[in-house]
Amino acid sequence: MMALGGTIGAGIFQGSSSSIHIAGPSVLITYLIGGLILLVVMRGLAAIALRYPQATTIKGLIEPILGPFAGYVAGWIYWLDWVLVMAAETAAASTFLQYWFPSVPLWVLALLVATAMTILNLTPVRIFGETEYWLAAVKIVTLSLFIIFGAIVLATRYSGSRISDNLVGHGGFFPHGIGGVAAAMLVVMFSFGGIEMIGMTLGETENPEQTIPRAARNVIVRILLFYLLPIAVIVCLIPWSQVGGTQSPFVMVFSQIGIPYVGGIMNFVMLTAVLSAINTGMYATSRMLYTQAMDGFVPKLFRKTNQHNVPVTALLFSTIFLYVGVAVAFFAGSNTFNDLMVIPGYTVMMVWMLLLLSQWRNAGAKPTTILALAALVAIFIAVIATSAVAGTIVSFGCVAVIAISYLFTRAKS
Questions:
Q1: Which pLDDT does position 98 carry in this prediction?
Q2: The pLDDT of residue 246 is above 80
């Protein structure tokens, strides 16, 4: 549920609008390609977790195979990934809350969200997990109903010619060519980011040698279902050219079906979606920073835990960056979500490539691993070619700073 919660956030409910607008109906191919790559990544993650049961985070899975430098870089870029995701999701949460509280400033709502989620994460991990379970459940139920209602409408109200017209009648299935598919991959990869969260729960999961492989196998199927099927419903019911504005495509479809109060209902669902992603992000950043402290790469004070064994100092430090990120996000204007997804889109692909390299070293050169790694590298290059130069420079600059910092932290240790 944590992997589903971290993945099914604003990326599907809000980011799908951007990906459909960029690629048109061919966005289905981007989600399918991304899902197949992640299938290999998750199988590799599960296999490594079985071989190295002492690992407690993704860093602990990569480091024994690729070395301390790779583990260090993976840990910090993953921390950076989730810090920015939390900022983007908190910004989105405040806008959803303003639907009901229009007179309250966005920054006040953002502060309330950040404070509430911080307090929740300071409680025992059992309470955190239970909360995440129910937040994720709301999203899953909503997507399930969306798929069912959409299928009913397609089967009863739409003729084959109308569906065909929506899919190919507005510039074709590839309205922006292969370049549109490549450009949409950044949004798609950002949306799928979070599925690897299974690797962050190793240290606090009962019987991880049994639980993690089973979760890795099952979650990828559910992710594909909860992304591919809803997107298929959207592009079959609505011309892709009408998607891409401020309104969520899910609201557009539910309104077309005739569900009353759809605006308020979907606003609530999207709020729970982003709260779930923030919740997951706080868990990921605090555990990763705690692991870096245990390995001696950051001051010992980040090893401090409270009476519930929650790494409180690491959590609060990550939360400080969350507040800063939210403030910057609001100054950025209406393109906050797109602006903030650039760096996480890059960093999560880097983590997946490191996991695939680890799987290669762990189990040998299997065709699926090689093919998935080659596809991911090709997508990475295509994203560089189609993304804004400024976002790419900032992303690689952050990674370079992290890599260089290893030399200084290693010298001190």
A1: 83
A2: no
CB 139 within 8 A of CB 269: yes
Predicted TM-score of the model (pTM): 0.79
| Cβ-based neighbours of 346, under 8 Å, separated by 6 or more | 186, 380, 383, 392, 395, 396, 399
CB 339 within 8 A of CB 185: no
Judge whether 336 and 91 are in contact, CB under 8 Å: yes
Domains of the chain as residue ranges with CATH: 2-412 (1.20.1740.10)
Write down the residue that tokens 């099952």 correspond to: 218
Phi-psi map region of 364: left, alpha, beta (phi>0 left; psi -120 to 50 alpha): left
Q: Nearest 5°: phi and psi at 375? A: -65, -40
In this prediction, residue 2 carries a pLDDT of 62
Per-residue pLDDT tens over the stretch 366-391: 888 999 999 889 888 887 887 778 77
High-pLDDT (> 70) share of the chain, %: 84
Tokens standing for residue 168: 């190919």
Note the pLDDT tens digit of each residue in 303-357. Answer: 888 887 888 888 888 888 777 666 765 665 545 555 556 777 788 889 889 999 9
How far apart (Å, rounded) are the C-alpha atoms in residues 42 and 49?
Answer: 10
Residue 22 has pLDDT above 60, yes or no: yes
